[in-house]
Design brief:
The chain is an alpha/beta fold and 405 residues long. It contains 16 helices and 14 strands. Strands 5-4-3-2-1-6-8-7 form an eight-stranded mixed β-sheet, sandwiched between helices. A six-stranded mixed β-sheet has the order 11-10-9-12-14-13, sandwiched between helices.
Length: 405
């Protein structure tokens, strides 16, 4: 059997999945998924088969970085799938810039282009490049494919992507790109099956609420507008990222507080968001369980920013037919879903409290669930996202188109 390795590399972890590639990958073709976590400390390896039985759960004292993590992962895959052939690796790459709007074979030129985009995605891009390079060393003949989080948003009109800056800066690529595109693309791909054909073509807002959070306006299955911009800092409050901020704040920090660019970057990417506002934690589950007033203030600001951005996206769409929660917080935090729905009652959004609470109690996040109250004007759903599957499908199709499978 031919298999495709899917990789999502972060600063201290590498998430992976293996899909059967003999047919177009689907959720039923998932063989295994897992994560190498805590890289740089006492690394840990966890893997499950078909999202059910754990087949590995152990610390790895000798694994310290992306190179050793990739070496261990390939060795483990080779042992556990000895009779299968790995034909490709598909990577989640956060920023594709203006030119990469579709899955792409990774070449030296592509890598050079991705390196130039590191300043626009400093939390993600360097580590995804590191995983690509590590795999090149260990398996130089393996086909590697980049799938971009920015690609889904290339359908945005120029008016939705342009800043109010001089034209020469816009021409140089300083514009809104949008992110979490693989997640939104997956949601868009299942809308007809979940919502029905008519509603799926309507005016939809998807809220990808996780440690990184954003929202996307979708019409006819295409991205119309997104809350994120040139980088993944813009828009909603996130676990450690600030979200939208007055540019004058940055000027003030430089001029009055004498902060350097590196200090400001660290503040905006790592010291703000839920962590900065609460002073307690960047984890929504921890904040929801806390009785500290600062935790409540951080949660309220998180919901308020969703409310504000939702109004903007509804304006871009000219109305709202459906709202979808997805990603870690969206799939597992009933109180956040309830607060968001309550704040959007003016739009006709109303969810059934019992269905909403039961969703978390039963951990039923493996399937789509309608949350709408009986007479609600806006159809509200929780749909689990699956970025790995999206990457696997893109990789398989590109391999087939290029006669490489």
């Amino acid at each position: 059997m031919n298999i495709i390795l899917i990789l999502n590399a972060g600063s201290s972890s590498i998430k992976f999945a293996l899909y059967a590639a003999d047919q177009d990958p689907s959720s039923g073709n998932l063989l295994c998924s897992g994560e190498l976590s805590r890289l740089g400390h006492l690394a840990h390896f966890h893997a499950t088969e078909k999202k059910q039985a754990a087949v590995a759960d152990q610390d790895l004292p000798r694994v310290q970085d992306h190179d050793s993590a990739m070496e261990y992962l390939l060795q483990w895959v080779g042992e556990h799938y000895a009779h299968d052939t790995m034909i490709a690796a598909g990577h989640r790459v956060v920023h594709g810039g203006e030119h990469y709007v579709a899955p792409t074979l990774i070449t030296d030129q592509v890598l050079d282009d991705l390196r130039r985009l590191i300043p626009l995605a400093p939390l993600h891009q360097p580590h995804q490049i590191a995983a690509i390079l590590a795999l090149q060393k260990l398996h130089p003949a393996l086909t590697q494919i980049a799938c971009f989080d920015t690609a889904f948003h290339h359908t945005n009109l120029p008016v939705a992507t342009q800043f109010g800056l001089p034209r020469e800066l816009t021409a140089a690529g300083i514009r809104r790109y949008g992110f979490h595109g693989l997640s939104y693309e997956y949601i868009a791909s299942v809308l007809k099956d979940v919502l029905g054909e008519q509603l799926a073509c309507g005016r939809i807002v998807v809220a990808h609420l996780g440690s990184g959070a954003s929202m996307c306006a979708i019409r006819n299955g295409q991205s119309i507008a997104s809350t994120m911009g040139l980088t993944a800092l813009d828009g909603l409050l996130m676990s450690r990222r600030c979200g939208s901020i007055d540019p004058g704040v940055l000027l003030y920090l430089m001029q009055e507080k004498k902060m350097s660019a590196d200090q400001i970057s660290h503040l905006l990417y790592n010291g703000s968001g839920l962590l900065g506002v609460s002073g307690l934690s960047d984890d929504m589950k921890t904040l929801l369980a806390s009785d500290d007033v600062r935790a409540a203030e951080a949660i309220d600001l998180f919901v308020y920013r969703i409310q504000r951005e939702l109004g903007s996206l509804v304006a871009a769409l000219g109305g709202l037919d459906a709202f979808i929660f997805t990603a870690g917080i969206g799939e597992h935090a009933a109180l956040i879903r309830q607060k968001v729905a309550d704040s959007a009652s003016w739009l006709g959004m109303e969810i059934d409290p019992q269905i909403n609470r039961a969703l978390d109690r039963h951990q039923a996040a493996q399937r789509a669930v309608c949350l709408s109250a009986q007479h609600a004007k806006v159809s509200t759903w929780m749909i689990p996202t699956d970025e790995d599957l999206m990457i696997a499908q893109h990789s398989k199709r590109l391999l087939t188109r290029l006669n490489l499978s």
